[in-house]
Amino acid sequence: MHATTADKSRNGLLIIPCYNEQEIITASLKMVTEYLSKARLPLDILVVDDGSTDRTRELANVFIPNQKREITVLSLDRNSGHQAAVLAGIDYSLALGYRYSISIDCDLQDDLELLPAMIMHGERHHIVAACHRKRKQDHLGKRLTANWFYSVANLLGIELLPHHADFRLLSARAAKSLMQLNHDSLFLRGAIMQLGFLVKPLSYERQSGLSNQRRSKYSINKMTSLALNGILVNTVLPLRIVLLISMILTPLSLGFLAYLLCASWLGGHTVPGWLSLFVALLIGFSLISTCLGVIAEYIARLYKSRTRVMHYQIRDDEAGQPTKSS
Fold first, then answer.
1. Is 277 contained in some domain?
2. Residue 6 falls within a domain, yes or no?
C-alpha cells in the first residue's frame, strides 16, 4: 500500500476484517458505532472486505452515508485469509498516519467494553493484547484443541500469550516493526512476540456476540492450518530435534558396527549372511541419519532467511476503492 501524507490529527483506527458477513455486517457496524459514540472513543473505523463473494461490501457501503464517524471500506482483490486482512488494515493505518490501530472480529465475540482499557494501556505500551479468560462460548472440541495447541507451543518454547486471538492494539511504532518482518506464513499472534516490545495482556470474557446469527468461518482445516503456521513459523526446534537424533544415532550405529566386525574377526559365532546384512543396514542408517541432520540444518537456515511474499492486493477497480463516510 502506498503511503500518503500523515494526518497528525488522526488518533486511532478500529480494523474490522470481514469475509462473507452479509448476515451480520450491518448489525455489527451499528453496535460498534453506537458503543464508540456512547464511550466517546476517538476511533475511526476500517472495514476490510476480504474478497467477499456475497453482499458484505455493498451492505457496509450502504451503512456508511450520514455517519458522523469516519468509516472506510477497503476491499482486497481476492480472499486472502483473516490474518492477511488484519495485516492490510494495519498497513492502511500506517499509510494514513494513525497513532494506533485495534483489530476486532466482525462477529463481536470480542468485548467492546474492553476498548477504553486497551486505549488507556496503549498510552504506556506499544502492544496491548486481549486474552480470553474463559472459553465458555466455544464448543468442547474447540476448547480442547486450543488448550492442546498452547500446550504444544509451550513445550516447543514458542512465545505466545495463551488464548490471545487477534483482538489487540498496536501503536504506530509497533505496526511499523511488524510490517518490516519477513512474512512467509502469517501468524500475527506469534509475530507480535518477536517485535521486542513489552506486551500488555488484558483478560476478558469472550462473548457470544453475533456469532449465533451465522455459521462459523473457521473450519477444522483452517484451524489446523493456522495452528501449523503458528508452530512452524515461530520455531526451528523440530528441525534441531531431527539433527540431535541423527547426531546420537549415527555414532551408536557405527559403534555397533565396529562391535560386530570385532566379534566376527575374533572368531565369535555368527549366522552366515547375518553380519553382511547388518553391516549394510547400519551403514545405510548412518548415512540417512547424517543426511537428515544436514538437510534439517539447511532448512533451518532457509527458514531464517525466508523472503517476503505478498499476502494481499487491494482492488484497483472503481468499485473497490476505499469508500468513506461523508
1. yes
2. no
176 and 45 in one domain?
Answer: yes
Give the model confidence (pLDDT) of 1-13 as tens digits: 534 434 444 699 9
Give dist(CA 311, CA 248) in Å, integer: 40
Q: Nearest-CA neighbor of 145 among 219, 46, 45?
A: 219
Tell me: do 141 and 280 sit in the same domain: no
Predicted confidence at residue 220, as pLDDT, reads 60
pLDDT higher than threshold 70 for residue 165: yes
Question: Per residue in 264-290, pLDDT tens?
Answer: 677 666 566 666 676 677 677 767 766
Whether residues 244 and 195 fall in one domain: no
Does residue 212 share a domain with residue 228?
Answer: yes
Q: How is the beta sheet containing 127-132 ordered, strand by strand?
A: 199-204, 127-132, 164-171, 100-103, 12-18, 43-49, 71-75, 323-324
Q: Which of 202, 192, 191 is nearest to 163 (CA)?
A: 202
Sign of the torsion angle spanned by Cα atoms 317, 105, 179, 46: positive
Domain residues for the domain of 268 are: 237-304
Number of independent structural domains in the chain: 2
User: Are the C-beta atoms of residues 197 and 172 closer than 8 Å to each other?
Assistant: no
Query: Is residue 225 located within the same domain as residue 273?
Result: no
Q: pTM of the prediction?
A: 0.70
Tens of pLDDT along 102-126? 999 999 988 899 999 999 999 999 9
For the record, the C-alpha cell of 75 comes out as: 476491499
Which is nearest to 168 in space by CA: 108, 103, 87? 103
Q: Do 144 and 267 have their domain in common?
A: no
323 pLDDT above the threshold of 70? no
